[in-house]
Design a protein that fits this description.
The chain has helices spanning about 1-25, 30, 35-55, 65-70, 75-110, 110-125, 130-140, 145-165, 170-180, 185-220, 230-240, 240-270, 275-280. By secondary structure, it is mostly helical.
């Protein structure tokens, strides 16, 4: 039980440090300290509770066991990461985002598409992935292409809806000013409306990062080659190898977090003029 008490003491100390930092410290780098401390406190409490109560690994492995599994299977985890995240999630994300931005411009040009496509998009976005994934596997096979297709379907409409909303967000006075300068549609689009739409577009891009990772992993449960994160999770659960399951979850969570952070970093560079970015500084 001593390990559990040490974990509780660390939790209390981390909590106090977070409160002190939140009240006194400023800056983006310092802002990373509270979530890091909170995460370490959760891991310490998890480790102490599992060891103090003797929880079996098939129920809940300790974080130290999970990290040991990660260290012992780096090659396997890397191969699964490339198959699922790089080939499936990233490629589907890139195609879905690119297609959504092009269609958003077409929708903006056509009132008919605005009234007809967006309601259909909301309907399709509500479809459960467990229903879409088997269809994509049937159409595109068991390779990464079917996972990319699932990701495409998941990210397309959130980005489309946000992009269309962003294209209408430009200030009316600014649009009237562009017309007084005899600016055409495309000039106004690239000089005014797209820059004004960037906060909306990046909101959709950030939502799509997590959807891409989730979609690629879940799609592998319905058919995949003998590698991939979803395939490894399903086989490890079947053999009660829970440390490997949690190792894959750790890699997936880390990948999704870094992907989201990368998009958020680009957002700060592109939309530095927006009030939300100035407040954060």
């Amino acid at each position: 039980m001593s390990g559990l008490w040490l974990a509780i003491v660390f939790w209390i100390a981390a909590w106090g440090a977070n409160v002190w930092i939140a009240r006194r410290a400023r800056g983006r780098i310092v802002a990373l300290v509270p979530p890091v401390l909170f995460g370490l406190a959760v891991l310490a409490l998890w480790e102490g509770a599992v060891r103090a109560f003797g929880v079996p690994e098939v129920i809940l492995p300790a974080p130290s066991v999970v990290m040991a599994t990660v260290g012992a299977n780096l090659g396997l985890l890397w191969g699964d990461f490339v198959q699922t995240i790089v080939k499936g999630a990233f490629s589907g994300y890139a195609m879905g985002v690119g297609a959504a931005l092009v269609v958003a411009v077409l929708v903006d040009r056509s009132p008919l598409l605005t009234r007809g496509l967006l309601p259909v998009g909301n309907f399709v976005a509500a479809l459960p992935i467990v229903g879409v994934a088997p269809i994509m596997v049937t159409w595109f096979g068991f390779g990464w292409q079917s996972k990319a297709a699932v990701v495409f379907a998941m990210v397309f409409f959130p980005v489309l809806v946000n992009a269309v909303a962003g294209l209408t967000a430009a200030d009316r006075m600014h649009r009237d000013l562009m017309r007084t300068y005899a600016a055409g549609y495309w000039t106004t689009l690239f000089k005014l409306r797209l820059p004004s739409a960037m906060p909306f577009i990046f909101n959709g891009l950030k939502i799509a990062t997590t959807l891409a990772v989730i979609g690629a992993i879940v799609a592998e449960f319905f058919g995949s080659p003998t590698r991939g994160m979803g395939f490894r999770i399903s086989t490890a659960v079947g053999s009660l190898a829970l440390p490997m399951v949690w190792a894959q979850i750790f890699v997936a969570a880390l990948s999704g977090t870094l992907f989201y952070g990368f998009v958020a970093m680009i957002e700060r560079r592109v939309t530095f003029w927006h009030p939300s970015q100035r407040v954060r500084g």
